[in-house]
Amino acid sequence: MHPLGVYVHFPFCLQKCGYCDFVSYETAPAAAGSGATLAAIDHEAYADAVLAELDARAAGLEGYALASVFFGGGTPSLWEPRALGRVLDAVRRHFGAAGAPPEVTVECNPSSLDGDRARALVDVGVDRLSVGVQAVDDARLRHLGRLHSADEARATLREVRAAGVPRLSADLIYAVGDQTPASAAADARELADLGVDHVSAYALIVETGTRFGELARRGRLPLADDGAMVESFFAVDAALAEAGLEHYEVSNFARPGERARHNVGYWRGDDYLGLGCAAYGTLAQAGGAMRWRNVLDPARYAAAARGATPLAPAAEGGVVATVEALDAETRLRERIMLGLRMRDGLDLAEAAAAVGCEPWPRERARAAERLVARGRLVREGDRLRVPHEAYVWVDDTAAALF
Ligand code: SF4
């Protein structure tokens, strides 16, 4: 049995953040002050559409054991827990578990999460919440376009902990404008003090097509320079190490036993089934793998998923916007790129055998020698890893091995 991760996309948010390039649509709150219930979302209809897609996709899938389920977005904490629970039950019914019970994570925002909602999510089988805190400073939160204040984020994390959520992660964005490394470290330290088990910390990236992208194009967005970004990266690293969190992936830190199993599956190159509007999925097939993406429009997705041919291309009335065949070499390059992001690195011979290609063509072996000589890579037999002090060059290191 091969491990399978299932990703379910929920494409709605209360408000679009300035830096966000995820597929998420702003939806007005049902009433002023009522952030957690959205009149404009048909919670059950969206669940029905995902269930219809699941039925169609799972019919052809055998030999998989469910390792993890991840509800991402968007803001899945806006989804009524009962509707989300219906999807989770069906996913569990379709696939057997891979030994340990599957990890079930829901991405949440403080503006749509409190103790009651956390308890309701646990009641339907969720065991891990990933909370988009992003900053513990009111001015920076406003600048990022977040709806919560620093105090609301603190209160949410405390309430969620008290509600008995077994595992808790928080997201952090650093190098925001002229933010100092000391301030980035202070945010990280505070999250650790608030009792989270896991932190995902990313430097602010300005993407085209976002509000920040437009401001930057017009020269109206203060930006951190590369030096400040690197200093902040190591400042966050030091703060979280001191708090007992292991830096187990370039952007992720965990207390012992608390690594995000769903994401580790991505970084190892395991197959994943994507469900919902705009979701990606990648499944092995003879000679390589198939990657698809669903249509980006929620109404179109819902109609197509519940139609007669849900897995047809969008042009023929189905949910599938794009399909890409990945050959063995492409899959190995992805495994190198993602595997090197992990502290443990990857076993190149194992990764190459899994996709069916040669691990050590002469050019790659020479490139590895050069990287080892420059301190960018450690090689122990077939195992490759990036030393901690060279994490910031990991993408270039991986590309040199392609
Ligand atoms: S809450 Fe998350 S998904 Fe929604 S707009 Fe903000 S960053 Fe994007």
Can you tell me about this structure?
This protein is of the alpha/beta class and 402 residues long. It has two domains: 2-265, Aldolase class I (TIM Barrel); 348-400, no CATH class. It is built from 14 helices and 18 strands. The chain has helices spanning 43-58, 81-94, 115-123, 138-144, 150-162, 181-193, 211-217, 226-242, 261-268, 298-305, 328-339, 348-355, 362-373, 394-400; strands at residues 2-10, 12-13, 25-26, 64-73, 96-97, 103-108, 128-134, 167-174, 198-203, 246-249, 252-254, 271-275, 280-285, 288-294, 320-327, 346-347, 378-380, 383-385. Strands 1, 4, 5, 6, 7, 8, 9, 10, 11 and 12 form a ten-stranded mixed sheet that branches. The chain has a three-stranded antiparallel sheet with strand order 13-14-15. It is globular and about 55 Å long. It binds iron/sulfur cluster. Iron/sulfur cluster binds at residues 13, 16-17, 20, 22, 24, 73-75, 109, 132.
Overall tally of domains: 2
Anisotropy-based shape: globular
Largest sheet: 10 strands, mixed
CATH H-level name of the largest domain... which superfamily?
Answer: Aldolase class I
Using DSSP, what is the number of strands?
18
- What helical percentage do the residues reach? 25-40%
- List bound small molecules: iron/sulfur cluster
Subunit organisation of the chains: single chain
The structure class reads alpha/beta
Number of helices: 14
> What is the CATH class of the largest domain?
Alpha Beta
Instruction: Output mean pLDDT.
Output: 94
Quote the CATH topology of the largest domain: TIM Barrel
Strand content: 15-25%
Whole-angstrom Rg: 21 Å
**What is the terminal separation in angstroms?**
29 Å
Taking pLDDT < 50 over at least 5 consecutive residues as the criterion, the unreliable ranges are 30-39
- Which architecture of the largest domain would the CATH scheme give at its second level? Alpha-Beta Barrel
